[in-house]
Amino acid sequence: MKKTFLFLSVMTLILLLLGFSGVEAGQGSRTPPRIGILIPEYGRPESLSIKGLRDGLKELGYKEGENILIEMRDAKGDRGALKPAAMELVKQKVSLIFTTGTRATQAAKAATSKIPIVFRHPGDPVALDLVKSMTRPGGNATGVAGLSLQMTEKRLEILREIVPQLRRVLIFYDSNNPVSRESSVLAQKTAAKLGLEVAVHPTKSVKELKNSISGIQKREGDALFHVADELVESQADFIFETARQKQLPTMFNMDFWATRGSLAGYGPNLYQMGRQSASLVNKILRGQNPGDLPIERANKFDLAINLRTASIIGVAVPPQTVKKADRVIR
C-alpha cells in the first residue's frame, strides 16, 4: 500500500513538472499568442505589409495556427469602422495589435494603453504624436516608419530627372489634415530650393478634390506632386486617369502607385517594412516593453516607373533613370 502510494506520488510530481515545463516553453495547454491586425482597407499597400509581417514571423519560427494566431480586422475604407474594430480586438484579449497608417494606429491607441502596438507608418510618428520620440517611444506603441517627409527632396529630384523641363509642381491635399498641411509646406520649401514653382490646391472633400483636379489648366513644365494624404490617395485612380488625359506627369510617394497608373513612385518598400515589424513583434512577445524599443526606419526604398503612362502622356524617360528603377512597368 505504501509502495503504491509512493509510486502515485512520484508520478503525480513528474506530471506536474512536465506540465509546468510545457507552459513555460509555450507548448502543451498554453494558448498561442494572438496577433490582431487592424487596417483601414485591404489593398496593395496593406497586403504587402501583411505578407512581409507573416513571412518575417515565419522566419523567426512562428507557425500560424500552431504557436501563433492572427486575427484580421479590415475597415474596408470606412474610417468610422476602425474604432469599433480596435475595441473588438481588445475584447478578444489579443497579445499585440499590428496597424498600418495613422488612423488605424490612433484607433488602436485609443482602444488600449496596455496591449502592445506595432505600426507600419509611411511618415513621422513623432510629428503625428503617435510616440514620444524615435529612440524611446514610451507608452505601448513602437513600429517602423518611412519618414516620407524627409524623402521629399529626393522625390522632387527624381521627378526633375524624369521631366527635365519641369518648372512647376501642383500639390493637392486635404486642408482638414494637419499632417498634410505640414507636408505641403515642406514640399514648397524644398521645391523653392530646387528652383521650382509650386501651385498648392487645398481641398476639403472628395467632390472639391475632383473638381479642382478636373479644372487644371496644364502648362508646359507642370507635374503633379503627391504628399501623403488619405483623401488624395482615396481618389488615386481618378487622379491618374485625369492626369493621363491632360498629359500631366505624376510623382507619388511609394512605388506601388506606379503600378496603379502614376508616372513614377518612390518610397519605402512596404513588404520589407512588414518584415521589420515582425522582428519588433517577436521582441515584444519575448517580454520586451514596446515603449523601450526604438522606432525603426524603413531600410529599403524603391523607385518604380510606369513607361506605359509615360508613352500616353508623351514623356521620354531618360534611359539612365529607367536603369536605376527597381521596377519598370512596360
Give the SSE layout:
Layout: H1 2-24, E1 34-39, H2 44-59, E2 69-74, H3 82-91, E3 96-100, H4 102-111, E4 117-121, E5 141-145, H5 152-162, E6 168-174, H6 178-193, E7 197-203, H7 206-214, E8 222-225, H8 230-234, H9 236-245, E9 250-252, H10 256-260, E10 264-268, H11 270-285, E11 296-297, E12 301-306, H12 307-313, H13 319-324, E13 327-329
Parallel strand pairs: 1-2, 1-3, 3-4, 4-5, 5-11, 6-7, 6-8, 8-9, 9-10, 12-13
Antiparallel strand pairs: 10-12
Task: Provide structural commentary.
The protein has two domains: 34-147 and 269-300, Rossmann fold (3-Layer(aba) Sandwich), CATH 3.40.50; 149-268 and 302-329, Response regulator (Rossmann fold, 3-Layer(aba) Sandwich). Helix 2 crosses helix 11 and helix 3 (82-91) packs across helix 4 (102-111). The model is unreliable at 2-29 (pLDDT under 50). A seven-stranded mixed beta sheet has the order 7-6-8-9-10-12-13, with helices on both faces. Strands 2-1-3-4-5-11 form a six-stranded parallel beta sheet, with helices on both faces. It is 44% helix and 19% strand. The longest helix has 23 residues, at 2-24. The protein has 330 residues and is of the alpha/beta class. It has 13 helices and 13 strands.
